TrEMBL record:
Signal sequence bounds: none
E.C. code: 7.1.1.-
Provenance organism: Arcobacter caeni
GO CC annotations on file: NADH dehydrogenase complex; plasma membrane
Gene: nuoA
Protein name per UniProt: NADH-quinone oxidoreductase subunit A
Length: 120
């Protein structure tokens, strides 16, 4: 075996032992809260007694906005490498990016037509 492999496995084992010791020590040395009523109570933005139930239904528009945000946010992941390598890709890469932007624009128009972006 190589010395690098032995060193890496020794470091891995040492980190595992150190983490195990820290978790065991924190269990014995750390503060204990014996009051389980306080531990299981709800605390929300300074309000200790919330009003209403937690089983309320949200509108589907919340989820539509969240999913559309994720879809349009992920486009940046594809645009950044293209912007870095624009000179190497040439006109073919520019044409591909115009197709990609056109598809994204079509998706945005679809969301606008479905009124997923307007709040009632």
């Amino acid at each position: 075996m190589s010395t690098e492999l032995i060193l890496a496995s020794a470091i891995f084992v040492a980190i595992g032992l150190i983490l195990t010791c820290v978790f065991v020590l924190s269990r014995f040395v750390g503060p204990k809260n014996e009051n389980s009523e306080m531990k299981n109570s709800v605390y929300e933005s300074g309000v200790t007694n919330p009003i209403g139930t937690t089983n309320i239904r949200f509108s589907v528009k919340f989820y539509l906005v969240a999913i559309s945000f994720l879809l349009f946010d992920v486009e940046i992941i594809f645009m950044f490498p293209w912007a870095i390598n624009i000179l190497e890709l040439g006109y073919f890469g520019l044409f591909k990016m115009f197709i990609f932007m056109g598809l994204l624009f079509a998706g945005l128009i679809y969301l606008y037509k479905k009124k997923a972006l307007s709040w009632d």
